[in-house]
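sorry for the late reply, my laptop died twice this morning and i had to redo everyting from scratch. anyway the thing you sent over, i finally got around to it. pasting the sequence first so we're on the same page, its 609 residues, then the predicted structure underneath. double check i copied it right bc i was rushing
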Amino acid sequence: MSSVYKIRKFRVPGYIKSAIEFLAPPENLTVSEWAARYRILNAKSSAMPGPWRNEVTPYLVDIMNEFNNYQTEKIVFCKATQVAGTEGMQNMLGFTAMQDPGPAMVVYPTDQLIERTVQTRLRPMIEDSPGLSKIYDKRRSGNDGIQFVNSFIALAGSNSPSGLASTPIRYLFLDEVDKYPSASKKEADPISLAIERTKTFWNRKIYMTSTPTLRTGQIWKAKEACDVERHFFVPCPQCGEMIELKFTQIKWPDKEEGLSDQDRAEQAYYVCQKCGCILDDNDKSEMIAKGEWRDVRKDTELIKSVAFWISSLYSPFVRFSEVALKFMESKDDPEKLQNFTNSWLAEPWEETKLKTSAELVLAHKTLVPEYVLPEWAKMLTGGIDVQENSLYWTIRAFGDFITSQNVAHGQALGFDEIEKVMNLQYMKPDGTFMVPQLVLIDSGDQTDMVYDFCVRNSEWCLPCKGMGTRQSHYTLSTINKAGSSAFGMTLVLVDGGKYKDMIAGRLHKKVGAKGSWMVNRDCDEEYAQQVTAEQKVSKKNTSGKEVLVWVPKSSHAANHYLDAEVYTLCAADILGVRQLYLQQEQQKEVKKVPERKVAEDDWLSGGRW
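ok and here's the structure:
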């Protein structure tokens, strides 16, 4: 006789069910996966309310997931505004509360900011996310912290030292650190005080984020101190090459009569630095979706601190035309330009000691057209800056007292093109011709090809190399590279800083004045931007002494024409441009002593003078 066993179902009491759920291990999720499953964006604080979608800001995925890397102890996010950086930080906060609870703290610039952040960001995030709302203890939460069933997030202002130095914490989030106050005589700086509280945890996580202000600001220094720095690269839809979006590649029409800045900005587009194709905002979303973070600097194999850097060019909420218009509105006002540099380009701002600008270059146009020599020209030299995919060249005419004018400039795709340009005859108004007497070419890139080129054109071309601060403007050395075709050839070591000083100083002379640095009538804005891509700032050297050095105005600033113009000046120096005016003196007709007049009737007796 067979027996039938029936399984009876019992109703589980609510308290037991809650206990089982509480004791259940957390889901195996990354921060980005947690956000996609549990995060709900509130309409009051987000332009795109609803469930969190990683595909909207794909560049945040790896930053958030770095939080799951057991080896990484510190994450630094140096960012522009409008890239959703704060939302990414809040996802990490929500993840810790649900998935891996532990004592946490968020430090904001001021106490006043805490209340507004709780009301507009933190509380809506918690209440709108089902997983977080279940463990949220609203009654015990306030402006000093967020209380969950199994963890607590302390909230502190960087201007309140007492709130930064008490109980230990495992998770530390530092928001907008460049707005924190500096250290005082009585207290250490807020960041150091907060980090001290994490020492007791071997598995601590420190997340630091901010828009940069100065190069000496906290976020920029933290970025530079990280073991590895990563930038976001995207594929060009035309050539497929991975490129980093740079402000210098955004182009718009030149200023014309009747065309407003807004009209010009609306026609802005991006030029791929690899293939030269034109890209617009419709291409950007697909490019960003296929982008990836790549190391641009790596100091060690054992990585404990990781820095991420990104500008507003990657933001899905910002169009190329908006970036262009913002720059036009800001370029003539130092305060506005600083905000553009910091908030849009995520670059540090530095007060310059010697200022140059593209407008200043374009204001130094003469009436002489491109490829024609000014009538005062006595010497012609050239400079070439070598890049991976092209060569930037300039030709400059010189006269007395180092008065000079750019005759022509351009971008060549190969050495053959350079050879043709430098062997052209350039005509003066009186019909006489001149050719570049000496051309210097940068040998820092594609060195062997440069040396071969110089050997083939040794009668007018020499290789050169930049060499820091030197006593003289240049030094003549010798190539001693064994096996090189240029072995024994002269190598010019150039102190670029000294020649950049000359350019900047002479740009402040009036057009046509003695010693003025000028450009031809047809000079374009791209050339003007590159020639003024650097600025001179005060920095401390290794011995702690303040020194003035030339640095790029931004990390992505193209300065190829500036380097080429440095080489034209150095070439002119080698040829003796500083003594040109002496030739004029020597050619002046020597005054003759008046002839003696002797009376006709007294010539035999040696009459009087």
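The longest strand covers residues 404-412.
thats about all i looked at so far, will dig more tmrw
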